[in-house]
Q: What sequence folds into this?
């Protein structure tokens, strides 16, 4: 029969082995993402969250720090520091939320906010340390892409007026993109936070950890007062327009993008909920959702209206469950 000391040694050995596994696997994932497929970096924090919940907050942050140090050594120090700044607050907020049995909406709200602040911090640090202005880099890339596209259009024998119209449209689209960078950062932060919270919660439940709140997409719902809130923000923006204390066009563009995406996601979650009710398998259900997103330019209006109506009438009766 094991004594207490032996049990402690076994626990420490298991946690150390698990930590080494997490460091190695996550570091390899990050290097692969940096060199080959950048979007896979979204999954980088997951194992640190899992080990942090299982063995303690210190394990999650320490293994992350060692992994980022390894990345800095193998690639460059700024990359390692950026990874640490970007993901440490996100990992900490999700670990805290899961261990303290916080509701999904609370965890997602906090983790989205801290990730957005982290991304802004990286942009500021990069500008001060390396003299890199992200906006200027984006503008340079756009100018180069537009010059190439105009040269290609000239081969199609378009008139100067037609080329001028296309150039004006591209410049207006790019201006809109620059105006909506804050909302794009918020949307990106929410998606990254959601993916990490969802997958880490599912892994922890598979490992026997009793995660109470798992953010199922089919149960995603906006606050009931969001329509009134957005309306008030639009009205306040219009009333303050004459004071010229902010960029009116930028504020309206960001409100529009955030409102549109919020109701689009709600409409998409209603579709997912209905597919589950019809007992559609997860593979085919994900396929339908993916096709819906791909065709969003054609059917986004339907999903947005569905999302608005669901906020008002609660088609899924989720408020009764809550």
A:
């Amino acid at each position: 029969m094991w004594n207490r000391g032996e049990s402690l040694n076994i626990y420490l050995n298991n946690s150390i082995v698990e930590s080494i596994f997490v460091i190695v696997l996550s570091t390899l994932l990050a290097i692969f993402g940096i060199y080959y497929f950048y979007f896979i970096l979204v999954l980088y924090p997951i194992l640190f969250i899992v080990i942090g919940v299982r063995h303690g907050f210190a394990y999650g942050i320490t293994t992350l720090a060692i992994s980022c140090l390894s990345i800095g050594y193998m690639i460059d120090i700024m990359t390692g520091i950026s990874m640490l700044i970007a993901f440490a607050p996100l990992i900490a907020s999700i670990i805290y939320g899961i261990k303290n049995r916080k509701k999904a909406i609370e965890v997602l709200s906090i983790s989205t906010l801290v990730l957005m602040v982290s991304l802004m911090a990286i942009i500021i640090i990069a500008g001060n340390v390396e003299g890199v202005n992200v906006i200027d880099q984006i503008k340079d890339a756009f100018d180069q892409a537009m010059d190439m596209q105009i040269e290609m259009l000239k081969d199609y024998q378009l008139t100067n007026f037609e080329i001028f119209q296309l150039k004006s449209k591209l410049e207006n689209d790019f201006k809109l993109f620059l105006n909506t960078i804050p909302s794009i950062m918020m949307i990106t932060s929410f998606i990254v936070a959601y993916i990490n919270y969802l997958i880490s919660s599912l892994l922890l439940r598979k490992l026997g950890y009793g995660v109470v709140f798992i953010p199922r997409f089919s149960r995603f719902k906006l606050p009931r007062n969001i329509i009134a809130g957005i309306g008030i923000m639009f009205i306040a923006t219009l009333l303050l327009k004459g004071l010229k204390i902010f960029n009116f066009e930028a504020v309206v563009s960001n409100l529009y993008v955030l409102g549109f995406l919020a109701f689009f996601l709600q409409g998409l979650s209603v579709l997912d909920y209905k597919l589950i009710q019809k007992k559609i398998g997860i593979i085919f259900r994900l396929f339908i959702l993916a096709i819906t997103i791909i065709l969003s330019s054609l059917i986004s209006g339907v999903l947005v209206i569905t999302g608005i109506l669901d906020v008002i009438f609660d088609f899924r009766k989720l408020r009764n469950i809550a």
User: Anything to note?
Assistant: The longest helix spans residues 4-35.
